[in-house]
Design brief:
Chain A: This is Signal recognition particle receptor subunit beta. The structure holds two protein chains of two kinds. Chain A has a single domain (about 20-200), classed as 3-Layer(aba) Sandwich (Rossmann fold), CATH 3.40.50.300. In chain A, about 25% of the residues lie in helices and about 30% in strands. Chain A contains five helices and seven strands. A seven-stranded mixed beta sheet of chain A has the order 2-3-4-1-5-6-7, with helices on both faces. Residues about 60-70 of chain A have low confidence and may be disordered. Chain B has a domain at about 30-110: Orthogonal Bundle (Arc Repressor Mutant, subunit A). In chain B, strand 1 (about 30-35) and strand 2 form a beta hairpin. Chain B starts with about 30 loop residues before the first strand and ends with a helix. Chain B has helices spanning about 65-70, 80-85, 90-100, 120-130; strands spanning about 30-35, 40-45, 50, 75, 105-110. Chain B contains four helices and five strands. Chain B is about 30% helix and about 10% strand. Classes of the chains: A alpha/beta, B alpha+beta. The interface between A and B is large, with 93 and 79 residues. The structure holds guanosine-5'-diphosphate (GDP) and magnesium ion. Magnesium ion binds near residues 38, 39, 81 and 97 of chain A.
């Protein structure tokens, strides 16, 4: 980016600016495989047009096509879409749509450690894509709910059948949603907040 | 049709470190910024809110610093700054440390998950979502 023409760097539109009273922000992550609807869900509830933060990751070229057989390094750019919801004049909530691969999670400080909780977005056509994500969240003690994004040609399972298949404890909410609809995505977030609230009541949040 | 079957995992005390050469990201170190006049260090978070202390950048400000200062005339998260400036999150640490040290910006710490969650916070969020 050329900062010499920095007068021209577009910032938030006036109506998208946070009030000066905004004291603190919290975050929620929406995690799932590629194409599962993360960006769609962020966009449907966000008060701003979703933005993208990028990070570059270098990794040794293992398993990467290399015609010359030499040790190569590849730089991967990882993008994360996010949106924002103003809760009160003091409090702001950010939603991050995060790729499912755990190696990306290190790129952003405290993305999962600091998040209030997570939504694991699942496509029943590729259920197993979400298995590793759920395992990682369990290992790290990140509370999560499961949202089944309904695609027209996806196999339909009974929710209790899915709970068994996903090996979820009875307390973990699992709901169907349509990430394109604001009300439906809002319900998913409400489900997560109610779940976090119930954990706070029982004091079982680790 | 039966769905594929997953197996639940137990919480581990320490998050597993990625395997060298395979999963090791290029920059896994924690990013810290100087957050107070007494030189105290705080972790820079994606949702730390940054506010400029003065409306006009000083003449000594670099073009990058000036661009950032103009953007956060009103509070803006580090994630939003990274997006508007087209700078990776890791570059924000350096830039913000300079500006915090020069007392040109103020950082407002994020709300992070705690062992015992703040119920009134969760209730506030639920009320906010209900109005959506
Ligand atoms: N039918 C249907 N399509 C969806 C839904 N959510 C997302 N899509 C579509 O699926 C595609 C991938 O969605 P996207 O949000 O980009 O996925 P991401 O990779 O997880 O961010 C897009 O073409 C969306 O329009 C949904 O709930 N129903
Ligand atoms: Mg996306």
């Amino acid at each position: 980016m050329d900062f010499n023409g920095s007068d021209t760097i577009p910032g938030p539109r006036t109506e998208d600016q946070l009030p000066h009273t905004a004291q603190a922000a919290a975050k929620i992550v929406i995690v799932g495989g590629f194409g599962v609807g993360k960006t769609t869900m962020v966009g449907s509830v966000s008060e701003i047009t979703p933005l993208t933060t990028e990070e570059t990751m270098t990794q040794a070229g293992i398993g990467v096509d290399d015609n010359f057989g030499s040790a190569s390094k590849t730089a991967t750019t990882v993008a994360m879409d996010f949106g924002r919801i103003s809760i009160t004049d003091q409090l702001v909530l950010y939603l991050f749509g995060t790729p499912g691969q755990q190696r990306f999670w290190f790129l952003w400080n405290g993305l999962f450690e600091g998040a209030l909780g997570a939504v694991v977005l699942v496509d029943t056509r590729r259920l197993e894509v979400s298995f590793d994500v759920m395992g990682r969240l369990e290992e790290r003690g990140v509370p999560f709910v499961v949202a089944i994004n309904s695609f027209p040609d996806a196999p339909r399972y009974d929710l209790e059948e899915l709970r068994t298949a996903l090996d979820l404890t009875p307390d973990i909410p699992i709901i169907e949603c349509d990430a394109r609809r604001r009300a439906s995505s809002r319900d998913v977030l409400m489900t997560l907040m109610r779940f976090l609230h119930s954990l706070a009541m029982t004091g079982s949040l680790t | 049709m039966t769905p594929p079957q997953r197996q639940r995992r137990d919480a581990v005390p320490e998050p597993p470190t990625p395997q060298a050469g395979e999963d090791k990201p290029g920059n896994p170190e924690r990013m810290y910024v100087v957050a107070g006049p007494d030189g105290e260090r705080a972790e820079l978070d994606l949702v730390t809110l940054i506010v400029a202390r003065a409306t006009d950048p000083p003449p000594s400000a670099s073009p990058e610093q000036a661009a950032l200062l103009r953007l956060c005339a009103a509070p803006l998260s580090v994630a939003e700054l990274s997006a508007y400036l087209h700078l990776p999150f890791s570059a924000m640490g350096v830039l913000l440390t300079e500006l915090l040290t020069a007392e040109l910006v103020q950082a407002r710490a994020p709300i992070v998950r705690k062992a015992r969650s703040d119920r009134s916070l969760l209730e506030a969020v639920m009320n906010g979502l209900q109005r959506l």
